[in-house]
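Risk register update: the risk that structure generation would not scale has been downgraded. Supporting records follow, first protein first.
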Amino acid sequence: MTMSWMIKMTMIPRRVWAISAFRSRAPSSSPCPVADVVVADPDLLSLIPPLPPKNVDKPSLLQPRVVVFDGVCHLCHSGVKWVISVDKYRKIKFCCLQSKAAEPYLEYCGVTREEVLRRFVFVEGPGSCYQASTAALQVISYLPLPYSALSAFLIIPKPLRDSVYDYVAKHRYDWFGKENQCIVMKEQELLDRFIDREEIIGSK
């Protein structure tokens, strides 16, 4: 037995469209005793907005090859200045740990500010974050020759490299000093390479 009826569906605000729906009951011997078929005007279907895609990650706004470092440390600042001076292709960018712009990078790498104060972070790209001596050598690998050749020190076991790094980092304030605010504010010609430059300038 076949029945047909009209079902009114509101597809667009203030407009009502009619879609004819038919329900047919198959013979009892059929493996699928009931089948529902909906027939609609193609022109009406084109007005139905598509469903949002599932399991699609939001695009990341983080920039690649960003160094997040202690901006009040004289030793760290000197290292940044050196990288800027030899990075003629401008591959590396920087961000002061003390700025708000650093927060999404810390969250992405799963580290706290306290951890980055001890070991700076290099966010190379999606899924690639490095700290301490490995971060330093990965940054160097992006510099032109002959400097990039120093990245060969990655062959040294990480615990040994990091032990030297941690010792220097622990005493850097005593040996080289620190400031109360990001040192780059005193050398604004470098700000072009900082992703947080607007925040730094606005804090003056």
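Supporting record for the second protein:
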Amino acid sequence: MCFIRVSLCSSLKIRVPLRLTDYSFSHSGVVRAPETQAVLGVQNYLEMAAQKLRPVGKVTFSISSRTDSGVHAICNSAHVDIERTPDKSPFSEETLVEALNYHLQPEPISIRKAIRVRDDFHARFKAISRTYFYRVVTGCKYRSLPVFERDLCWAAAERHLDVPRIQEAAQFFVGTHDFSGFRSIHKNTPCQSPVRTLLKADITPSTSLLPNPLQNSSLQFWDFTFKGSEDDQRSGRCRFGESHTATNKISSGRA
């Protein structure tokens, strides 16, 4: 989900959140990469698309969930200030979505929705929770995965997954804990505190993204879901792991 912030203090500037999805194996991750780098980030393409709308000045996106390469966004959020010249009216939410998606082609990035919000809305600092999904399939190796599932789930050759024991173990992570043992840190790490609150850890049976009656019946798909709260006072990236799909929920902050 990508939200664009556009200031309401001027009739020429609007603050609008956008819902965004992306398939990140084509990118270095979400955040902007150096322009000299061979593989760019999702933020690079968002900003290049926004500049083609001929705004006043350079636009910069602030993205809520800073996922890495291989972590696909089901629904991420971001914001950006866009101001037009005095002879042009502000973009409507619908026009902004359509125009950005046009200029994002052929990248696997899609703006899904725009909503106008207040000037104090911030996609990163106003986040209230983040949910990560890990998809696992048992009964085959990676090379035997259905072609539409490759890079979208983790293949395990074992045919049996002891789900009750995994569920039991996962519950030890629920609650507020010190996760120092699950991360590396240095002086430039924006979120210094290792204390996090995990609201949900669940494992449920799932299905293929593209069901096929001729598909190997021995394949069993599983969704591992982890949801964590987001403290508005934290300025750093607060997440509990890297998954193949990610959902980011934010406070509405409507104007």
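The chain has a mean pLDDT of 77. On this basis the risk owner (M.S.) recommends closing the item.
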